[in-house]
Design goal:
- By secondary structure, the chain is mainly beta.
- It has a single domain (about 5-200), classed as Lipoprotein localisation LolA/LolB/LppX (outer membrane lipoprotein receptor (LolB), chain A, Clam), CATH 2.50.20.10.
- The chain is built from 4 helices and 11 strands; from the N terminus they run H-H-E-E-E-E-E-E-H-H-E-E-E-E-E.
- An 11-stranded antiparallel β-sheet has the order 6-5-4-3-2-1-11-10-9-8-7.
- The two termini are about 25 Å apart.
Length: about 220
């Protein structure tokens, strides 16, 4: 498989042996044991922060376990809609329309779809995925970070996603999702970092459609 294709597929979810590993900054910051545990209320704050996002646009950097990177723009509209638009020259697109997550490879005219709930991204997009129920706080040395690990023990095939927030008064709920970390059932890792967040803008549902390369019909 083309290395670039493999890297992009890693963002599409567990169904393609992929996962997302995200740092709080451009350099990955792994949660480490510390003497002081985060306050119990931080989990509720993180849930409120996610629910407080109506729309979000941010730049992203995606890095695989070998250090290869791709960049682009992520557009999020809750519930259930997301678009990863890659940089110019990368013939791939990842988009969720509210029910399914779709990976499009324009180079080979291939389209693959999976239910959102079966992807690590379900913790971000699936309104039925209860982060408070399936999430737990992860200790961090940095008191400015809130780290939440989300996994459904009854469905290990959904993978694990670790959400990393930075305390920021101007962000929804006082926490800004700067990164997330996900690991799928095949232990495949990727990391994604978000920067230049913009909230609350009007985003048309048309942004979560795509041109199907298999036919001339516009979707």
């Amino acid at each position: 498989m083309n290395p670039m294709t493999s890297l992009v597929r890693s963002l599409a979810g567990a169904a393609v042996s992929a996962a997302l590993v995200v740092s709080a900054t451009a350099t990955f910051i792994a949660p480490t044991p510390v003497a002081a545990q985060a306050a119990p209320s931080d989990l509720d704050s993180a849930v409120s922060a996610l629910r407080g996002i109506s729309t979000l646009r941010a730049d992203f950097v995606q890095t695989d376990r070998n250090g290869k990177q791709l960049r682009g723009v992520m557009t999020l509209k809750r519930p259930g809609k997301i678009r990863f638009q890659y940089e110019k020259g990368v013939p791939f697109l990842i988009v969720a329309d509210g029910s399914a997550l779709t990976f499009i490879d324009y180079q080979v005219r291939q389209v693959q779809r999976w239910p959102i709930k079966n992807s690590p991204l379900g913790a971000l997009l699936d309104p039925k995925r209860d982060v408070a129920r399936y999430g737990k706080l992860v200790p961090s040395e940095n008191g400015n970070l809130v780290v939440i690990e989300v996994r459904d023990k009854e469905h290990p095939e959904y993978g694990v996603i670790t959400l990393v927030f930075v305390r920021k008064a101007s962000a929804p709920g006082g926490l800004e999702l700067t990164s997330w970390a996900a690991l799928d059932a095949q232990n495949t890792r990727t990391r994604v970092t978000l920067t230049n967040h913009k909230y609350g803008m009007a985003i048309s549902d048309k942004e979560f459609r795509f041109n199907d390369p298999r036919t001339p019909t516009r979707r």
